[in-house]
Design goal:
- This protein has helices at about 5-15, 55-70, 85-100, and strands at about 30-40, 40-50, 75-80.
- It is of the alpha+beta class and about 120 residues long.
- The protein has a single domain (about 5-90), classed as GMP Synthetase, Chain A, domain 3 (2-Layer Sandwich), CATH 3.30.300.
- The longest helix has 17 residues, at about 55-70.
Length: about 120
Amino acid sequence: MSDEPTVETVEEAIADVTHPEIDATLVDLGMIDDVAVAGDEATIEVAIPMAGIPDAIKQLLARRLAEPVNEVGAELRVRFVLMDEETRERFFRMENENWSGLEGEEGGDSTPDSPPDSPF
């Protein structure tokens, strides 16, 4: 591995990062919009389906990305952007098919068919 992180090493590092409420990776959900690396700073554009996503969910997504990015020697910077319509539709289909609820959440008895309190 080289001393400086690259777009490729960052993309590989985050490939298996999962969504906190949907049993799918952020990549599969279309949430990783762009990855850029300048020196030891990696900027990841995370696409969200709508503007009203709670800050707690955004922070959780950023924390999930930070660990693997730090492991390849980069400092993470996250920028949230809105999904385009096609990606948003696919995201919602996958949400309905793969809903798991917040990990560790008390009373997480939701089923994949009914995401009752989904912030998405």
